[in-house]
Amino acid sequence: MSAEVLDGVTARPVTTNRLTTRVLFTGPDDGIPVLFVHGNFSNATWWEETMISLPDGYRGVAIDQRGYGEADPSAKIDATKGVADLVDDAIAIM
Fold first, then answer.
1. pLDDT digits (tens, 9 = 90+) for 27-52
2. Which candidate among 35, 59, 60, 80 keeps its CA 20 to 30 Å from the CA of 46?
3. What is the torsion angle, in degrees rounded to the nearest 10, for the CA atoms of residue 82, residue 19, residue 40 and residue 94?
4. Do 63 and 89 form a contact (C-beta atoms < 8 A)?
5. Is the Cβ–Cβ distance between 68 and 45 less than 8 Å?
6. DSSP per-residue letters across the chain
């Protein structure tokens, strides 16, 4: 992992049956999950300040979507599925 993160944010690679990507985490492991999804021309880093501002008891989760950040560059977006490809990735991460 090459990108630095803010204090309170943990970054680690996560592999699913769909792709390997960088995922950022904040809060307790057993916290209520809050999924952060970035837009075009961005990555999970966009959400770091918001993630560390979550109330106690919440678990921030932000993924580098395929095609962005530190997602596996060989994992291409299937344009015939529209955003469903990205949705399937997020479900697999969660």
1. 999 999 999 999 999 999 999 999 99
2. 80
3. 90
4. yes
5. no
6. --S---TT-EEEEEE-SS-EEEEEEES-TTSEEEEE---TT--GGGGHHHHHTSPTTEEEEEE--TTSTTS-TT----GGGTTHHHHHHHHHH-
